[in-house]
């Protein structure tokens, strides 16, 4: 119709411009909502399942908002399954593997950065491409031979496959950007390479070490397959315990969701701490997943 | 005083002393990473079940696999899964990156929420998806019914199990693609946009002819990482379907797991690992080669 009528008067045109801008903004807000909603909804559904009783959990149509919310599922998970022990196992395995990796990985990252031995990082990339199961078969055979299967020691050693590459990679990158003038000054004053590292470079690298520590810990914590194969009943890590104990010994959804939250909450909290540095870690990649 | 102005002997001595820093890590990597590689390669030439004696069989494990129907089907299935689980996150991740590249209120918090799936423990998330996929009480079929669609069997149907698993994979890994592409967008120059806008280019043209070519290298990096991870996908498939129904979602990794840790067929499993590694390596190199080619032209 507009084509036939005279061109709109200035106020009308302004109103139409405003309307179009408003439409654009709404459309953009909608697209943000669509993009973020899958992430929010799955986590909210997890929370909802964990806070409802069993009758509400299997009701159809589903009950979305727990009324009243109950913590019975969390209590049940802690009382009926020794989830506390598995939580502790996970802390020992991931903490131990990450600390050993820091011990050897921080100096290694420093050495790689200062000698420019970048060929070593190619090794790390290839390690990332190798399926995790392929490390597991030989290590399983060796642990069998040493009678170490079903021990936490075996799990800590295997988790080094995950933690060492990621820490070496992150530390090499970090030391590369760290100015070397201070270390050189110390060496000219007679400090050995080790002293220069220990008292000059190392203290300066603390932020990088924190990021490396958290990322290695998260990847190790999330790992399922190593524990699934190597752990015994008493030495299961948390993800393995949640899969084995809960799915086979009880099929209730509430406790299952509660356990899932207990496994993943520490990771999500750590994620918030290092939000900005996550990308480096994810692309550099430790050996994660399968 | 920089390295360049030092006497050569000092530099050489220092280089040598730095190798001592790397040595402990090399020992650990040798023990837990390189030793398993060599052991696997060696074992793939043996017929060995744990608990019995190993005999040398040369390439028999490999020729056996070439004629093994179940393994070949697993390979095809893995490629099908990988193709879907690479392409869909690449497209969705790029769209998400374009959105998050703009300024809007609560951008930081929303981006933080968006990347949460990527860090969440795969097993925990897979258990929640298992409950959501449930044909009778699952929330997904309820959501379908809300928009008037018939219920689906999801992971209980041989035909839909792979697409359903890909859905979980998309949910899990689109954030990673988004972060990589977002990094690419942040590095874009502004001049081409200004001149193109002066010439009257549309939003789509700006995207198609300026943004897309400039972020293409980042998309390729994302494609390489995604391909490697999708080929290796294990946790979610194992937890949700364990390769079922039947063998409808048995990928190479699931087949490998069964061979190694259900049948303890170490020789055969090692041969699968070697073939699997060659496939991962070949696809990664192919994509890196494409990247080089596109940089030249």
> What's the helix count of chain B?
13
Relative helix content of chain B: over 70%
In what range is the share of β-strand residues of chain A?
under 5%
Low-pLDDT ranges of chain B: none
Query: Biggest interface, which chains?
Result: A-B, 98 and 86 residues
CATH class group of the largest domain in chain B: Mainly Alpha
Integer average pLDDT of chain A: 83
Q: Give the strand tally of chain A.
A: 0
- Count of alpha/pi helices of chain A: 14
3D shape of chain A: flat
Task: Give the fraction of residues assigned to helices of chain A.
Answer: over 70%
How would you summarize what this structure contains?
The complex is a heterodimer of chains A (290) and B (297). Chain A has 290 residues and is mostly helical. Helices cover 77% and strands 0% of the residues of chain A.
Task: Summarize the structure in words.
The complex is a heterodimer of chains A (290) and B (297). Chain A has 290 residues and is mainly α. Chain A has helices at 10-50, 54-57, 72-80, 83-115, 119-129, 132-146, 152-177, 181-188, 193-204, 206-222, 225-230, 238-249, 253-273, 278-284. Chain A is built from 14 helices and no strands. The longest helix of chain A is centred in the first third of the chain and has 41 residues, at 10-50. Chain B is mostly helical. Chain B has 2 domains: 3-43, no CATH class; 60-296, MetI-like (MetI-like fold). Chain B contains 13 helices and 2 strands, in the order αββαααααααααααα. A two-stranded antiparallel sheet of chain B has the order 1-2. In chain B, α3 (69-101) packs parallel to α8, α8 crosses α10 (203-231) and α12 packs antiparallel against α13. The mean pLDDT of chain B is 86. The interface between A and B is large, with 98 and 86 residues.
């Amino acid at each position: 119709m507009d084509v036939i009528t005279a061109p709109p008067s200035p106020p009308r045109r302004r109103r139409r411009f405003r309307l179009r801008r408003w439409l654009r903004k709404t459309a953009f807000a909608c697209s943000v909502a669509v993009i973020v909603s899958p992430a929010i909804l799955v986590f909210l559904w997890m929370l909802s399942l964990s806070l409802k009783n069993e009758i509400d959990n299997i009701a159809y149509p589903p009950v979305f908002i727990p009324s009243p919310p109950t913590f019975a599922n969390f209590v049940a998970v802690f009382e009926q399954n020794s989830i506390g022990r598995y939580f502790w196992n996970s802390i020992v395995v991931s903490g131990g593997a990450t600390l050993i990796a820091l011990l050897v990985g921080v100096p290694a990252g420093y050495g790689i950065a200062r000698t420019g031995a970048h060929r070593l990082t190619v090794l790390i990339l290839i390690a990332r491409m190798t399926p995790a199961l392929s490390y597991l078969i030989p290590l399983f055979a060796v642990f069998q031979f040493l009678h170490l299967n079903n021990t936490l020691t075996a799990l800590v050693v295997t988790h080094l496959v995950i933690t060492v590459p990621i820490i070496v990679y992150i530390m090499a990158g970090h030391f590369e950007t760290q100015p070397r003038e201070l270390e050189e000054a110390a060496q000219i004053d007679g400090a050995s390479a080790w002293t220069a590292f220990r008292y000059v470079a190392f203290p300066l690298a603390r932020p990088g070490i924190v990021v490396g520590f958290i990322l290695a810990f998260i990847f190790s914590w999330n790992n399922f397959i190593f524990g699934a194969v190597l752990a015994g009943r008493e030495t299961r890590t948390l993800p393995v315990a949640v899969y084995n104990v809960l799915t086979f010994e009880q099929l209730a959804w509430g406790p299952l969701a509660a356990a899932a939250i207990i496994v993943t909450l520490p990771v999500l909290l750590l994620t918030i701490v290092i939000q900005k540095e996550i990308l480096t870690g994810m692309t550099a990649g430790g050996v994660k997943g399968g | 005083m920089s390295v360049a102005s030092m006497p050569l002997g000092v530099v050489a001595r220092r280089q040598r002393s730095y190798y001592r820093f790397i040595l402990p890590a090399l020992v650990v990597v040798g023990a837990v990473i390189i030793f398993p590689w060599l052991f696997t390669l060696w074992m793939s030439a043996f017929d060995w079940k744990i608990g019995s004696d190993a005999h040398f069989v040369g390439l028999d494990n490999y020729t056996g696999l070439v004629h093994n129907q179940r393994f070949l089907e697993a390979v095809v299935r893995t490629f099908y899964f990988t193709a879907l689980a690479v392409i869909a996150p690449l497209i969705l991740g790029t769209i998400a990156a374009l959105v998050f590249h703009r300024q809007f209120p609560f951008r930081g918090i929303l981006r933080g929420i968006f990347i949460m799936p990527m860090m969440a423990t795969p097993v925990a998330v897979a258990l929640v998806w298992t409950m959501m996929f449930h044909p009778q009480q699952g929330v997904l079929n309820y959501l379908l019914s809300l928009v008037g669609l018939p219920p689906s069997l999801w992971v209980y149907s041989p035909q839909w199990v792979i697409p359903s698993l890909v859905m979980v994979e998309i949910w899990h890994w689109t954030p990673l693609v988004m972060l990589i592409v977002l990094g690419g967008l942040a590095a874009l120059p502004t001049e081409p946009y200004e001149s193109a806008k002066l010439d009257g280019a549309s939003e789509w043209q700006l995207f198609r002819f300026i943004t897309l070519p400039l972020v293409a290298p980042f998309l390729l990096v994302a494609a390489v990482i995604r391909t490697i991870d999708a080929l290796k996908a294990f946790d979610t498939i194992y937890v949700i379907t364990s390769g079922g129904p039947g063998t409808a979602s048995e990928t190479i990794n699931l087949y490998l797991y069964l061979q190694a840790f259900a049948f303890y067929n170490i020789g055969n499993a090692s041969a699968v690992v070697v073939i699997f590694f060659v496939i991962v390596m070949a696809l990664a190199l192919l994509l890196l080669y494409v990247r080089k080619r596109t940089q030249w032209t």
